[in-house]
Amino acid sequence: DIQAEWLTQLLSTMYVEHGITKRRDSLLQDIARGNCRLWFAVKGEKPIGSAALVKQSDGSVEVGRAVSLENGAGGLLMLLAAQHHMMNAESPLVAEVRISDGFGGVPSGEATQVVCFRHLGLIPQATVPAFNHGNPNRQEMFIFSSSKLIPSGLPAFFPDDMAGFNLLTEIAVPMSKESFDEGLEIKQGRSSRLTNWTLAEKQPFSVILPDKSGVKFELVVKESEKYSQFTLIPMSANPNNTMAILESLDMGFIPCGFDRNRDKDGFPVILLGKLKKGTLLAPIKIVSGVLDPSVVKAIQNIDQKFRNA
Predict the structure, then answer these.
(1) Which of 3.10.20.30, 3.40.630.30, 3.50.50.60, 3.40.50.1780 is the CATH number of 2-146?
(2) pLDDT tens, 247-261?
(3) Under a CB-based contact definition with an 8 Å cutoff, are residues 54 and 86 in contact?
């Protein structure tokens, strides 16, 4: 209870509004089960910084929950947490790295970028406006990153529609091109149009997936936006999904990069995202020199696509 109270207190102080503070029961369960291991910096018997290792469903471990009320505390705790994982486990270390500039009293994500990319050497794989903070509440851009490359496997199949193919190769591929262990092979194809979808997850953001027993795309997107400002489609880029990918693009979904895991058959999984109309999006700020210039350009292109949507 003390750990949950301290983390909730720190997150509320730093971010005003944070998704974890709304799910205290879930946080308590994760701590009790050992799925969330926390590090704190304390001054005068009060917490001034935090970081955590959080077990993920795919076996990876996320380093995050970093808060620093005094300069350097959160970054140091992240390094200590990451060191603990690397010395005691072989599973991938992953992170959702904030790249937003400071706004409304909420600090920028520069310190986290330095820790994750410069010191831990995490590999950027997708740029996603997945989470929100502050008052007024704003979505923020995050770089989904991992300590391990996406494993080798089958090619990615993109729709043979020229506009859709170009959007994917110009936006998603540059974001993730250095993320694949043996590079990314791309082929074109045309499958039958898939018309039914389902809402698979509602929090911390909505996730929709193809589902033959589901509903039409327009209906599932409308439903998903009741629960979250951001909707994500993790789509297997297999030959049977090319028209589903095109349908997503036609509905305004933007390529964000690729998931760290391939699907069960070995095909890459492309991430497509959409912000609800009227959603505030915080400005981005990327620390100079922590990422390859080509990746920085890809991030900026994805960010601009969401702002223009």
Answers:
(1) 3.40.630.30
(2) 999 999 999 999 999
(3) no
